[in-house]
Amino acid sequence: MSQKLDLELINLTKRYGETVAVDEINYHFSSGTYACLLGPSGCGKSSTLRMIAGHESISDGAITLAGRDISHLPPARRGTAMMFQNYALFPHLSILDNVAFSLKMQGIETAARHAQAGEMLELVDMSALADRLPAQLSGGQQQRAALARALITKPEVLLLDEPLSALDPFLRIRMRAELKKLQRELGITFVHVTHGQDEALALADEIVVMNDARIEQAGKTRAVFDAPKTAFVARFLGSHNVVSMPEGMIAVRSDALEIKPPEGARLPGTITNIEYQGTHVALTATVPGAQEVTALLSDKDFCGNPKNVGEAIGLDWEAGAAQALAG
Questions:
Q1: Chain centroid, CA 66 distance in Å
Q2: How far apart are CA 139 and CA 141, in angstroms?
Q3: pLDDT tens, 142-194?
Q4: Going from the N-terminus, what domains does the chain have, and what CATH number goes with each?
Q5: Can you tell me the distance from the alpha carbon of 48 to that of 306, in angstroms, rounded to the nearest whole number?
């Protein structure tokens, strides 16, 4: 895909008085990428998204899109569109008029803007509900309407602020698939803020893990998950154990841990919890230094050699399964 629509953050900084919410971050989003900004509450991810959108002023640095500095442009002139967490639909307008609203503000006449809004509703499979009011829609339908309203401006980058947080777990999974499908069909860049690790791993081509106003680690999703560089990233992404060993701190994936007799294993431990998870069993053990680790075993493997809480075990892993951490 053409590089001309790339989005870049350059030493981007946001201060609120003495508080630094975003601290000189740099990142390059390639055109057509689905990227997730991932991190705990207060890490700076939403402030970053709002600065890209133009809903927050920047304190220092720059934002470029398609090679032009958009740092101080109003939101409507940036080439971005924002989908808000609460969807922000106008309750007194039909879904068709909600989607067409930005075109009305541009002075486009009724028939033309309704035609374009109809195309957007067809794109998100909402044509049959065009005449309804937002209160007459389910959460998932409201989300589709908000998506159509954001996309009608034909943005080069779509910004999504925790768009799935208001949905129930089943619908959230369904909507993840729909968002990814839509992004592939449109071929534009999506930048999606979430604190959900599963959501980021399911959706993103690349993830930007933020912590304490900075980027802790970023890159292709699989690469970051397989090779976390810090204890924070390993713990936050989940499915990793962070263990202090004589040779230093390491991360080992839960599904890479093997249960063995205590003698001769890298880590002797005592089982503290066993949790059945359907196809898998999560076995938690305390190991030297009062550290807790979790091994994820297949249901078949566990049932073939069952264990009990309080039992002494050994935990081991293949040499290549351990990832050295910076701290």
A1: 24
A2: 5
A3: 989 999 999 999 999 999 998 888 788 888 888 899 899 999 999 999 999 99
A4: 3-226 (3.40.50.300), 245-324 (2.40.50.100)
A5: 48
